[in-house]
Amino acid sequence: MSESVAKTNGPNAAVTKKPTRGASAVTWADDRLGLATAAKKNLRKIFPDHWSFMLGEIALWSFVILLITGVFLTFWFKPSMGEVEYMGSYAQLRGLHMSEAYASTLDISFDVRGGLLMRQMHHWSAMLFIAAMLVHMMRVFLTGAFRKPRELNWIIGGLLILLGIIEGFAGYSLPDDLLSGTGLRIADGLVKATPVLGTYMSFFMFGGEFPGDDIIPRLYMAHILLIPGLILALIAAHMLLLVYHKHTQWPGPGRTEENVVGFPMLPVYAAKAGGFFFITFGVTALMGGLMSINPVWKYGPYNPSQVTAGSQPDWYMGIAEGLLRIMPGWETSIFGVTLSWNVFIPGQLMPIILLAMVLAWPFLEAWVTGDKREHHLLQRPRNAPTRTAFLAAMITLYGLLWAAGGNDILAVIFHLNLNHITYFMRGAVFVVPILVFMLTRRWCISLQRQDNETLLHGYETGIIMRSAEGGYTERHLPISPEAAYTLTARDRDTVHEVEAGVDENGVPASGGRIAAVRARLSQAMYGHNVQKPTAQELDEGHHHAEDEHAHEIEAGLDHSADGHQFDGRHPVEGEELRSH
Known about the structure:
Layout: H1 21-33, H2 35-42, E1 46-47, H3 54-74, E2 83-85, E3 97-99, H4 100-110, H5 115-143, H6 151-173, H7 178-192, H8 198-206, H9 215-245, E4 263-264, H10 265-290, H11 318-326, E5 332-334, E6 337-339, H12 341-369, H13 385-404, H14 407-414, H15 418-457, E7 459-466, E8 472-477, H16 481-488, H17 512-526, H18 535-554
Antiparallel strand pairs: 1-4, 2-3, 5-6, 7-8
Helix pairs in contact: 3-5, 3-10, 4-5, 5-6, 5-10, 6-9, 6-12, 7-8, 11-12, 11-13, 13-15
Cofactor: heme
GO molecular function, one term: oxidoreductase activity
InterPro entries: Cyt_b/b6_N, Cytb/b6-like_sf, Di-haem_cyt_TM
């Protein structure tokens, strides 16, 4: 052994007497920052493995791609509304007067090597970022992953979606083309619809009368600095809370509220996450190279007197666009001031109300159930029928408003009357989501009933048996212990009853009305659910299956016909069903 190495048969790990420069630097940093302690705990942190958990990673990696491509674009984009004469490569617009922002966008698209690819990758990754966040939040909502202690992370997710939409709007407004200018004109109308303060807010935002000369530079600073900074801060908070609370997991054998079954951060999860980033980057690059998006050269420079035919915003603005198009023309004049409810309600009020309803659900559910426990096991969507039905209704409403935002396109393509489409959508947004809610909840309850039948009587084998009397029955076989564990790994719902309005002395009980409201909500949300079988019901079901099998033997039905050997009671190594 070298003299510079300490003995290794003692209680302490072997270390060199003269550490290397790298080791000294690491020791110096650890003494002051405590990095080793944090690394030991977090680098071996366990993460469960399920495909649905990758939805959040798609959003994260899409944001990273947004940052990479955005930095590239900032080198050539000029956020100025100063007028120039375009003399670039695109012949159809050569000689036209336009803003420097639009001219630089054309230069990036046609004169900068790889510029169009970066532009389209940037735009596609923005689409994927918002889409992945929405689908990720839907997964969280359906599985109850927002329950204690993750309510704050649910709010952060909602704020991230809101900021992502604002960031996307600011981004596609920057080229100053005719389509994006039309979107800014709509935004100006939304701001001016604000009671009392609308015109002042518009003048402040645009630096004067629309369109002014300041909106592109201001949007540019918000797009590359302010909003990305807020998004980065919220993503960091989201990830820190994820690590602090530990990851949720699907129920299964060996998985409890106290543990996490999966792979450690290093080396398994880090390698998989790194590979997934390159997959996301590759798919985005293919989309940017092969699928055209936002071809601004077709629209021309913005002119306040013109509107692009068939103007449509990016898909995530569909809810506001649809509300604006189907809202009746309600206005009120008070003391000479016109209040444009037909713009204020659909453009400002309703989107915030819908978002607030979704974000408030965890707190409503916790109040109705009175559940104060921590939850780390996910729920199957069928085991929360009301919650699943609510999300289905919200998705339906979003889809209807999305279609309503393209009512002019629908009228042209399908040769329909534009007014008929608008009137239909006005009624459909109230009727169809309610029907979808009722249908989805009944569907989930039926699935709960099917799960109970499977637990009590086994699964349908497709083996038809004939009794001596000529009757036909289908053989049921017990499910595996793993499947039974998954089906029973849920809590029984507690339905609160309406308590008496007065106490034993006849005095009205405090909080009686609130308790009554809570009890009615509890009955509406959980009263129709099918609860999982009790231990006694499971035992009775298994004894019934044993008795049936005994009767089959007595009746001479337990013969060796093909398929009957797969009854869960005989060895079947090497056995196969005959092909038909």
